[in-house]
């Protein structure tokens, strides 16, 4: 296997502020690679450097062997992009949006017409081809942006939060489309705040915080690094009981947030044996997941 995207000591500064701080990564051709992290972590900035929308301050970033600073044209040719912010033309119809975008790539009209039809079909917007974009719902616009990102038949697809704001049906549709594109050999870069989505789709991911990578690997392997296979959630814990409860849980890694105590353990029965005399409104035992890891490594406080 060989990396199709390679970052070496990549730094991005906006003025004095360092948004991306010396990160290195290899993305294998044909893989689905995730960038996770809290708001403001630097995910979009990394994407934008890859698709040559912002400059790289220092370090080296190559896409299919082409340096993004020296050969942005060559890089853009093989990329499809779904940016985080919708930038469709609201005055045009769905179909016209695809045609207009295709002009940047110099694709012959006859080919574009066929591709546009196929792509609207692909994202289930074929019945909306004549609708002005401003009449589309948020989820439809997202799907149109995905179709637009595919108009130049890219080898690499960059998806910056493609499913944010989508209903469950649309989200599952987009997941299936991503898997289908991957089967066709397209390399996909994904950012998402939905941990179950990342766990379901990504071959490999990095977790970013304050512009630095704080974890990387396959989602299943990363989850195994947590201190237990299950989490027991104790809900509606009264403030006055917290210290007493925690003192009985010394054998287990645990964390209190608000009125809930999270206990890493392999069985709720053993945990509850330690808590005789306490009653809880609700006790949930579930498998550990990527969200547990995310919160454990980046904390529970808001970033914005
Ligand atoms: N053009 C800019 N000028 C100055 N600072 C910027 C600019 N763009 C982004 N930043 C800052 O860089 C940091 C990283 O932003 P970025 O958009 O990459 O975050 P993100 O991980 O994509 O966050 P989110 O999950 O909210 O989309 C933030 O602190 C942001 O305020
Ligand atoms: Mg972003």
Short structural description:
With 304 residues, the chain is an alpha/beta fold.
- State the domain count: 2
Strand order, sheet with most strands: 6-7-8-3-9-10
Helix segment tally:
11
Strand content: 25-35%
CATH class of the largest domain: Alpha Beta
Cα-based radius of gyration, to the nearest Å: 23 Å
Helix and strand content put the structural class at: alpha/beta
CATH architecture of the largest domain: 3-Layer(aba) Sandwich
Largest sheet: 6 strands, mixed
Please explain how this structure is put together:
The chain contains eleven helices and 14 strands. The protein is of the alpha/beta class. The chain has two domains: 3-223, P-loop containing nucleotide triphosphate hydrolases (Rossmann fold), CATH 3.40.50; 227-287, 2-Layer Sandwich (Alpha-Beta Plaits). The strands form three sheets. Strands 6-7-8-3-9-10 form a six-stranded mixed sheet, sandwiched between helices. A four-stranded antiparallel sheet has the order 2-1-4-5. Helix 3 packs across helix 4. The longest helix is centred in the middle third of the chain and has 16 residues, at 168-183. The protein starts with a strand and ends in a 6-residue tail after the last helix. 34% of the residues are buried. The model has no long low-confidence stretch (mean pLDDT 94).
